[in-house]
Amino acid sequence: xxxxxxxxxxxxxxxxxxxxxxxxxxxxxxxxxxxxxxxxxxxxxxxxxxxxxxxxxxxxxxxxxxxxxxxxxxxxxxxxxxxxxxxxxxxxxxxxxxxxxxxxxxxxxxxxxxxxxxxxxxxxxxxxxxxxxxxxxxxxxxxxxxxxxxxxxxxxxxxxxxxxxxxxxxxxxxxxxxxxxxxxxxxxxxxxxxxxxxxxxxxxxxxxxxxxxxxxxxxxxxxxxxxxxxxxxxxxxxxxxxxxxxxxxxxxxxxxxxxxxxxxxxxxxxxxx
Length: 273
Description:
- This protein is α/β, with parallel strands linked by helices.
- The chain folds into 2 domains: about 120 residues, Quinolinate phosphoribosyl transferase, N-terminal domain (Aldehyde Oxidoreductase, domain 3, Alpha-Beta Complex); about 150 residues, Alpha-Beta Barrel (TIM Barrel), CATH 3.20.20.70.
- The protein is built from 11 helices and 12 strands.
- The strands form 3 sheets. A 6-stranded parallel beta sheet has the order 6-11-10-9-8-7.
- It starts with a helix and ends with a strand.
């Protein structure tokens, strides 16, 4: 992360009058960061940067995306006691949040067993790049990072100017390097969008059966091979395998980020012997 970002996070967490950490001497100690539950680790480089900012030496045998079990040591730390306590919560927040996202993403990836699992822009303001990085660590796809990454024609665009006008306007404005994606809710709209040469069709909040019918229509008209198909909306860990069987290439799920649980990760000072 940028040093300006890091220092903003530190300022938020420590404040201006940190008595609790300052009442102890900054004597040299050793500590461990420990996983309290099974999961996929993410946020290692961010935690490393936090520790190193406070002149703490962190070592780890893990890389983002590795499986960790309960009581596994994520980091061994050498540094000042006061410094470790100052860095503790911020580093654990990154690890817990990002590992939780990576763990849920991996569960979706394994259950889908085929189509690429992607997240969405339903992210925490100011923390998007870390959340999307965690999705990547879990084996998922980050999708768009922002509105400029691709042109997505959504239902509200279509409501304002109609499907065909929206696609024509996008094709006129788009650089040759930028993909055009269209949300559809019917097989007929999927066929029309494909005939107009869009790059990606998203089946938005459509049932498994309706998506299957739309894919079949595209195949019958010889349009399937030239387009990326994405399903989104109403997809859960319980039904993702059914959507995976519809023939789509991508399944995008906002819940990877907004509904993931934090992983329980703690830090403990090792007693001197």
